[in-house]
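Help needed: design a sequence for this.
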């Protein structure tokens, strides 16, 4: 009986620690994610023709360049709420980092590309937007909810991993971790 209580207590600490990582917006290096130990295998995604974006493809992470990836959904109110903070971060660092927002919605299928472009326009998006319809990148980057973001350095290693809404300052700080490698 005591062993069962001990195991339950240890499991609770793990759950609370993980929740703390999400709440603080960063993943502790000891967890093995976000510590830059393994490069992310590149994924090529189709882009959405929208303001600041283009019709075509984007490779994430970019070759030899830091990449910031924001995962969003057009159905997600917190995703819409943080768009001004993302826009400010893009205005400040967009020349230094490949800045991409990615949706896992079925763009071109159940969701019309025009609907994503309209949402993008309505929320003042002005950078690359891509569709991860198969959730390949979503899975590779261990995304667990929306909104989520990853800052990846020029060698393809995640330097900042976060979920939830953030301020422009928090985004800039996370992106700088990737730029500083």
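Sure. Designed sequence:
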């Amino acid at each position: 009986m005591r062993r069962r209580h001990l195991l339950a207590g240890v499991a609770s600490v793990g759950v609370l620690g993980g929740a703390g990582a999400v709440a603080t917006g960063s993943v502790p290096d000891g967890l093995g994610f976000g510590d830059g130990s393994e490069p992310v295998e590149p994924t090529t995604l189709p882009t959405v023709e929208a303001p600041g974006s283009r019709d075509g493809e984007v490779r994430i992470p970019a070759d030899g360049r830091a990449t910031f990836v924001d995962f969003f959904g057009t159905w997600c109110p917190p995703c819409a709420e943080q768009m001004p903070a993302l826009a400010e971060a893009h205005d400040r660092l967009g020349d230094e980092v490949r800045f991409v927002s990615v949706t896992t919605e079925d763009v071109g299928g159940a969701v019309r590309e025009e609907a994503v472009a309209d949402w993008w326009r309505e929320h003042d998006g002005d950078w690359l937007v891509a569709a991860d319809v198969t959730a390949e990148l979503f899975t590779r980057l261990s995304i667990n909810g929306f909104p989520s973001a990853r800052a990846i350095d020029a060698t393809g290693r995640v330097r900042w991993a976060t979920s939830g809404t953030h301020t422009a300052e928090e985004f800039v700080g996370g992106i700088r971790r990737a730029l500083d490698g």
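Residues 1-34 have pLDDT under 50 and may be disordered.
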